[in-house]
Amino acid sequence: MIWLLFVLAIDQRYHTFNEVAHELDSIALCYPEITLLDTIGYSTTDSMPIFAMKISDNVEINEDEPEILYVALHHAEELLGLEVCMYMSDELVTDYQLDSTITNWVNEREIWFVPLLNPDGHSVVMEGIDTTWRKNKRDNNNNGIFDLDYDGVDPNRNYDFYWSKGGSSDPSSEYYRGPAPFSDAENRALRDLCLAHNFIFCNTYHSARTGLGEVIYYPWRAPGYYSPDYPFIRLVADSMSKLIVNEAGNGHYYALPGSGVDGRARNWIYGICGTFCYCVEICTTTIVPGWMVDDICLRNSIGAYYLLNRVNSTGITGCIYDSLTGEPLQAEVVINGFYDPTLPPRMSDPTYGRFLRILGDGTFDIEIHKKGYESFHLTGVVVEPGKMLELNVLLKKKEVTSIIPADTPNLMIFPNPTRNVMTICVANPDQFSSLKIYDISGRVLKDFENPSSNILIWLVKDNMDRDLANGVYYVIGETTDAKFVRKIVINN
Predict the structure, then answer these.
(1) C-alpha angle 438/442/445, rounded to 5°?
(2) Residues spanned by CATH 2.60.40.1120 within the chain?
(3) Cβ distance 451 to 435 under 8 Å?
């Protein structure tokens, strides 16, 4: 009971929000050549800043380097993840140019930390209001009063990936998934960061008050269905877990596939972004005495740092270019046998044309596709253990027979711009072999299969029934010898 009272007081070893802000600001001021501190959003209720720290040389530039992300404190009471991120951030900048391994990581990687995703909930814990609080502080009943029995959303159930299959619809539940996917600012902040970058690996840090501790979960296992990269995600998880010594000192963490697909961070970040994302359950409880924290951080950092090495080992990388102009291209990269057409395509980077796929050793068949270009196929590609195979690709443009001018009345769109519904009028639908919605990178978002009606009502959603973000898109209809292109704008 004495130990319980000690924990409830929240040991001073744990960072308050103000201490996090001050320490990150100090790091940015002391190491401006290798750090970039950004605010990626503000919390749902108290509008507290959500910080992201980038550590890399040439930090102001998006270089052609692998990106790795570490995220903590989805859940307010799970303080140890924040401490691991702060510990690693400090070590990387302090030992830069003193330790050759760390110097190489900083010079050759782009390392990101989001140490405190849920600052509202964190304040509830740190102020002693409720040291078992998990959620943020969303005012679920809109009464202007923070109610421990009813308010808050579980940020780790609010992602737009099979959102309705996870969490709870009851606002009073610890696992309340929110009124809609991405309803809460914390999740939107991390979403936008992930969509703006091509993260290869991501660790999201948690701690287990209930369930298993000292385990690394990875995507995913569902009845008769595993994630398409399952063998390779598992290999990385197994290796990382074996590097983290457990609290008892007589073994190591375990790696397990997460059960099912739902609106958790690891599923969305992998399923939508293609990032190998892991949920690291630190320790066997959520809040431990302060004297234990540094040892936990040290042991976990060893596993986290493994990812910085693994990103350059056993896989395929390269750049994709236009064969005539040499311009880098964003194209879909398919590893046959490890591909799920229901997920968004795994694309190369739009700036450098770079792709990087983590694999195991073996022989693979690769396809690369881009609208308007001839597809690239390569069979029998041998990946050796411990080596990243470099494979640069030139794509050749297809010949386009004709493009109908935009004022031709065969395909009409209104209203344009639109908010949440659009009418597509097709003069001769039977002549169209396809009618699709594309984003500006050429990715198919909506496919109107075999259009047979003159009037199509589109609710501005993609093939997975997700709302499209504001921006510019294209409606493209194709016949056997012509292409009809209409630019559209979504502005909610």
Answers:
(1) 35
(2) 315-395
(3) yes
**SS3 state of residue 90:** helix
pLDDT tens track for 337-350: 999 999 999 999 99
> Tens digits of per-residue pLDDT, 423-474?
787 766 667 778 889 988 888 999 887 666 666 778 889 988 888 888 888 8
**At residue 271, what are phi and psi to the nearest 5 degrees?**
-65, -40
CB neighbour class for 70 (10 Å; exposed up to 12, middle 13-18, buried from 19): buried
3-state DSSP call for residue 19?
Answer: helix
Which of 19, 281, 399, 449 is the catalytic position?
A: 281
Alpha-carbon distance 406 to 458, whole Å? 20
Nearest to 378 by CA among 361, 358, 388, 363: 363
Burial of 223 (0-12, 13-18, 19+ CB in 10 A): exposed
At 173, is the secondary structure helix, strand, or coil?
coil
Q: Where are the CATH 2.60.40.3080 domain residues in the chain?
A: 403-490
Quick one: pLDDT band at residue 211, thresholds 50, 70, 90?
A: confident
Rg of the chain taking only CA atoms, in angstroms: 24
Whether the Cβ atoms of residue 69 and residue 40 lie closer than 8 Å to each other: no
Q: Is 281 annotated as catalytic?
A: yes
What fold is seen in the domain 2-310?
Aminopeptidase (3.40.630)
Question: Using CA atoms, how far apart are residues 361 and 89, in angstroms rounded to an integer?
Answer: 32
- Nearest Cα to 15, choosing from 304, 303, 297? 297
Question: What letter represents residue 207's amino acid?
Answer: S
CATH architecture of 315-395: Sandwich (2.60)
Assigned fold of 403-490? Immunoglobulin-like (2.60.40)
- How far are the Cα atoms of 222, 319, 321, 322, 393 from residue 326, in angstroms, in the given order? 43, 11, 5, 5, 10
pTM of full prediction above 0.90: no
